[in-house]
């Protein structure tokens, strides 16, 4: 795998989660461009740099020990990648502080390096949070591959930070640089909310939550077919998003015990707040994690899952397959994984390779709900 070679460092980086013979590298030309641009400005060692949405730690690890770096983002896997890549390159795994997107950072910062996220609502929330945390003369430099850089990203930077200058393209990457100027203090439009009729819920969604403006059609198909009469079952909502599956299940199963897991800090924050609004002080576990990787083997009776089919801009079923494997490890013998998926993804045959029995619970023209028993 190629090394990331920049004026700051030469690094051997890996992606998270790891997979054998991964054809994708843990950095791209936008990372290289951002680091080269920062180096050209010759910041001093006391320069405070905030790095946002650094998918695998390429930016923060490159700057570790050279500048005063803080990293922040909404991905637990990105946090894990940063720690592993620091250690992999002979740096203390905790040498770059990481602030989850569910928490607020403390400035002032002289430079902010931003990888433009897939969800522009997350970018907007981050730009709003920067207000009051930028030093005089600070710059916010956002980078992306051109095919993933919407015009609206520059508009948001102009609105919340200051005048924006677009760079020339370099290796199919482009930078947008905003210099701090006086702007009205903005109030965040997030979290957003929407209502469900069945079950009757109002669901809160922080900026980076999947389908923030309304229930996704896969979950809508899944809800009427969630398992009932679970007794005191130990249930995990794997990839919980705003927590709607676990909450709906918990309302129908008052004695069951729930764990809600997602790799998005904002999703877990949303799930916790929605659970408390719907179920008060009923105990539950909320965790930003690498799926069920840290869960004890054979410790769950039921897993509910609406699996993702992409990681950032990369589309595929690798994450779903990994979640199915994790579920199998965590379930007791006789336990069951319930999933919803697009028909064309062929999850039935994939699950049959891991579980002793797979049955179709229900179907719509687009989705299937499957039960896989260990």
From TrEMBL:
Cytoplasm listed as a keyword: yes
GO function terms (MF aspect): 23S rRNA (guanine(1835)-N(2))-methyltransferase activity; nucleic acid binding
Catalytic activity: guanosine(1835) in 23S rRNA + S-adenosyl-L-methionine = N(2)-methylguanosine(1835) in 23S rRNA + S-adenosyl-L-homocysteine + H(+)
Gene Ontology CC annotations of this record: cytoplasm
Pfam family, one: RLMG_N
Ranges for domain Methyltransferase small: 201-371
Methyltransferase in keyword set: yes
UniProt keywords, alphabetically: Cytoplasm, Methyltransferase, rRNA processing, S-adenosyl-L-methionine, Transferase
Listed PROSITE patterns: N6_MTASE
Principal subcellular localisation of the protein: cytoplasm
Subcellular location as annotated: Cytoplasm
Family to which this protein belongs: Belongs to the methyltransferase superfamily. RlmG family.
Biological function: Specifically methylates the guanine in position 1835 (m2G1835) of 23S rRNA.
PANTHER family in alphabetical order: RIBOSOMAL RNA LARGE SUBUNIT METHYLTRANSFERASE G, RIBOSOMAL RNA SMALL SUBUNIT METHYLTRANSFERASE C
Protein name (database record): Ribosomal RNA large subunit methyltransferase G
Gene it is expressed from: rlmG
């Amino acid at each position: 795998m190629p090394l990331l070679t920049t004026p700051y460092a030469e690094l051997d980086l890996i992606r998270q989660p790891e997979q054998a013979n991964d054809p994708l590298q843990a950095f791209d030309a936008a990372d290289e461009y951002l680091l080269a641009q920062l180096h050209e400005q010759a910041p001093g060692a006391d320069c405070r740099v905030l790095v946002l949405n650094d998918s695998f730690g390429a930016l923060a690890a490159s700057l570790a020990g050279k500048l005063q770096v803080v990293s922040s983002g909404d991905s637990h896997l990105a946090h894990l990648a940063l720690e592993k890549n620091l250690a992999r390159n002979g740096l203390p795994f905790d040498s770059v502080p990481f602030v989850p997107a569910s928490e607020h950072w403390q400035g002032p910062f002289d430079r902010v390096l931003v990888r433009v996220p897939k969800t522009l609502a997350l970018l907007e929330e981050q730009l709003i949070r920067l207000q009051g945390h930028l030093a005089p003369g600070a710059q916010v430099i956002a980078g992306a591959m051109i095919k993933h850089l919407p015009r609206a990203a520059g508009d948001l930077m102009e609105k919340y930070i200051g005048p924006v200058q677009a760079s020339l393209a370099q290796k199919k990457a482009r930078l947008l640089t905003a210099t701090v100027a006086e702007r009205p203090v903005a109030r965040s439009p997030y979290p957003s909310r929407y209502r469900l009729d069945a079950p009757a819920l109002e669901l809160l969604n922080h900026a980076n939550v999947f389908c923030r403006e309304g229930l996704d059609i896969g979950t809508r198909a899944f809800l009427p077919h969630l398992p009932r009469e679970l007794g005191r079952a130990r249930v995990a909502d794997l990839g919980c998003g705003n927590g709607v599956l676990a909450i709906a299940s918990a309302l129908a199963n008052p004695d069951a015990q729930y764990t809600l897991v997602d790799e998005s800090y904002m999703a877990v924050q949303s799930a916790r707040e929605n659970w408390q609004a719907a179920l008060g002080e009923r105990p539950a576990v909320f965790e930003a994690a690498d799926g069920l990787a840290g869960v004890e083997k054979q410790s769950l009776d039921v897993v509910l899952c609406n699996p993702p089919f992409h990681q950032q801009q990369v589309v595929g079923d690798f994450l779903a397959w990994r979640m199915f494997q994790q579920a199998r490890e965590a379930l007791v013998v006789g336990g069951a994984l319930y999933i919803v998926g697009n028909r064309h993804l062929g999850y039935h045959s994939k699950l049959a390779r891991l579980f002793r029995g797979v049955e179709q619970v229900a179907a719509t023209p687009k989705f299937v709900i499957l039960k896989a028993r260990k």
